[in-house]
Amino acid sequence: LCDRVFIVPGEMVSEWFRCIPEKKPFLHGNGYNVISKIKKEEFHDYALELYPIIKPKMAKKGLKGSVNVASFMREYSNFGIVGLVLSGFITALFFLFIEFVYKDADIKIKLALNLFLIFLLSSGALSTLIFSGGWLFLIGLFFIFKKEFNEC
């Protein structure tokens, strides 16, 4: 369990950096389904495409899978260093938003409601956590019930 939480995410980030652009090219936006449709080019999911490169023994056995990816690696695989900077900027803006919403909250409440999702950024996209991961919903609920939290 500790390996899966603390070692594997960092290992996968280093593997993505090893593979891109050496073995797989930068995608120039085609790693996002919406952008590839707009450009009328093929969509590439490197989480799936890198699996046989990163896990060749498993792929040789006929297994198919995906490799987890830290939130900033999708931007890197699409736009290189510029993507890393952009991802950092967007993440920082989101953290500023969180800080604004939770500005009057006790640090224990702020950590309890956000720390797990922050940890998940090591294995998933920020957009996924915000929308389908429920982070935005959780922030919204806190905002609605902020007065009740302050009364505790």
Give an overview of the whole structure:
The protein has 152 residues and is mainly α. Helices cover 67% and strands 0% of the residues. The protein is built from ten helices and no strands.
What is the strand and helix layout of this fold?
Blueprint lengths: L1 H18 L13 H7 L6 H4 L1 H4 L1 H5 L12 H29 L5 H14 L5 H5 L4 H10 L1 H6 L1
The overall strand count is: 0
- Uncertain stretches: none
- Sum up the overall morphology in one term: elongated
Which oligomeric state applies?
single chain
Number of helices: 10
Tell me the series of helices and strands, N- to C-terminal. Answer: HHHHHHHHHH
Distance between the termini: 35 Å
Biggest sheet features: none
DSSP strand (E) fraction? under 5%
Class by SSE composition = mainly alpha
Question: Mean of residue pLDDT?
Answer: 93
**What share of residues is helical?**
55-70%
Give the radius of gyration. Answer: 18 Å
